[in-house]
Structures
1.
Amino acid sequence: MSGHDQHYHHDHEHQAVPHDLTLRVKALESLLIEKGYVDPAALDALIDTMENKIGPRNGAKVVAKAWLDPEYKARLLTDAPKAIAELGFLSAEGESMVVLENTPQVHNLVVCTLCSCYPWPVLGLPPVWYKSNAYRSRAVIDPRGILKEFGTALPEDTEIRVWDSTAEVRYLVLPERPSNTESLTEEQLADLVTRDSMVGVTKL
Amino acid sequence: MNQPNQPDLTQLPGLPKDEGGPIFAEPWQAQAFAMAVKLSHAGYFTWTEWAAELAAELKAAAGRGEPDDGSKYYQHWLNTLERLAQAKGLTNQQALNDRKEAWADAYRHTPHGQPVILKR
């Protein structure tokens, strides 16, 4: 991989402490796993079956609106939390959101090199692969390889930007609108938007 | 991947759910849900026992005058889980407190870009 197509963004020197309930769950979970009372893979498998169960797919509505409404898109790219709140979606943990626009020249890919930073108010529960060590480490050092595994081939001259989420700032990718969708309604467009495309591992 | 056995949700009145199963407002709630299901599958308690313990926790909360609107459902769920795990000898309050503080500390001291790992 050539070095010029990768930018690695650090936004914070250290990490915010999650809220009390999250810490209690982490404490209990790590103790139970350590003692062998629960199998972490079985926990992940069960959570995976429920990953789309946090509310509706709010992010897809945000993307569809941005495709149709240039003024909304401009607001979304300059002040994402405010623009997302316009649709009634609020961030419960008070973290900030940044929306990253994919273009033919630039493809954005989101990772959290930790475990839990994910824009779940707009994307629901993180998928198991997002939390895996393989994705978290390789997205940074070999984003093109990761994208290939998701079936995403990008032209050699497309710049890939990798964004590392934090507890304070989370990222949502605004995918490119597919061609031949001019006649679709906002609702139909939202149905086209996949979770993976908003993490940046796939295109639409 | 094996489809995990789904627990009997009809035993849990008040569980936030839709036609597709339980719904969660935040990720920790799904993790707490999964832990209870898996401990029950592993035989540390039966699902009926879980439902009864949770019901007692919810009833106690209602007795304290807390609103019964579902907003605190998973806090009660987590209280029940911690209590039952201790009653079954799986852990104790000191270990839970220490581990929670260790996680908070790990977050405070880990530079971003590195995984948060407990110092042991």
2.
Amino acid sequence: MEEEQRPRKILVVDDEPDLQPLVLQRMRRGIRRGRYQFLFAGNGVEALELLRAVGDIDMVVSDINMPQMDGLTLLEQIPSVDPNIRAIIVSAYGDMANIRTAMNRGAFDFITKPIDFTDLQVTIDRTLEHLAEWRSVLRARDQLVSVQNELSIATQIQQSVLPTRLPQGIGFHLHASMEAARNVGGDFYDTIPLEDGRVGLAIADVSDKGVPAALFMMASYTLLRAAARTPDAGSTMQKVNDLLTETNVVGMFVTMFYAVFDPVSGSLTYANGGHNPPVLLHEDGTTEQLPLTGGVALGVMSDLDYNVKSINLTPGDTVFLYTDGIPEAINGDDEEFGMERLCTTLTAARDRNAHDLTDYVLKDLQAFVGDTPQFDDITCLTLRFTGAVQ
Amino acid sequence: MNVNTETSGNSLVVALDGRVDSSNAAEFNATIENATADSDLGVVLDCENLQYISSAGLRVILTTAKSLQSSQRKFVICTLSNPIQDIFVISGFDQIINIQGSRAEALATMEA
């Protein structure tokens, strides 16, 4: 804002010494009101020295024919000092060749000799106005760049909190993947080692996108980590829900599926808070969606109970946890990938380990989607139960 | 997305058409906020021609439900297609929002 207050610095370049008092006299009102401040140079070389020494000159009004360095050469040199300085060229009336050359070398405008000072002032004001607009565009661009940088850092932070080394043990394999959409999203997965060798498995999707979703995702992720100390999936969800709801003033919510897996017995005890039901893939290739437990998405309402269900996995079973970015991914014809296709793909990948199966599904999804931009985060967590070695 | 509002009996009926996702959820929010702020009637959200709603859209519905509830106004959603119904069931929102099969049924619960 203070920049608006300071007088605009205008460098007048002319080898005619009479011009200086004339300019100061005719422009005295603007000078007195603090709108302009004039500096003077006798040729291009002096002008460049002044531009460099003063540092914040806004515009140049330059004659063409001068000793040492003429105005057309000066025009070429100005951008090396500051590309945002604007120049007006003063030329003899009818000297179209030089005026064209000057404009081609980046002059903003021209006036003709003998100088009409009313015209000079109008031209100066118009140039300064353009300069102010140009600077505000530059500022907006800089702000945009800095916001984009912050967003990409936010995405990196999100990615970096997610575990990359998942718990491994006898009888099971885990693999996970998250591909964030261009916007900062709100998906996450987690694998939490619990007592007695059990493992907490979570997949979640925060409503909406952008920075608010990213913050809510971080809160949900942290609260889940803290609440997962109890081995009961239902009370873990209840605790996360109550804590999230307590502090949720913006009406966001997160859908979350949370399961406690016991690799010794193969039991999977889970509670669902409004999330898409994971797919259970059997060794023979048949698939089923895990029955819902009727829980509400987290962060909506406090004091809710989260019922649990339990299944016993058979060696060879795979549980595929995912977010709606997978079934709702669309191709160029606006068709959704859909649950049916997901199940078909899983069946085709039934003999693969957790890592290869995840890759297979993501490649198949990519082939389906083609060049259509990704709108939502694509996240999945695969558990393959092999059973204890005999 | 299209939002049409009309008064029917003692209710404000908001008909929601098309797709609601994160690209237009803010617009949907502003529209429904304006429509409900101008009145103190209960609100029926008719989703007969709603083709898709993302979680960003669900969030708007949830916020609307909460704000109406806080001013003791009724809020009913009706005429959900099967895929949209599934979204409400999976998210568990069918347990906290009154959902009716048709506009007539929704209006009947408003009279009660």
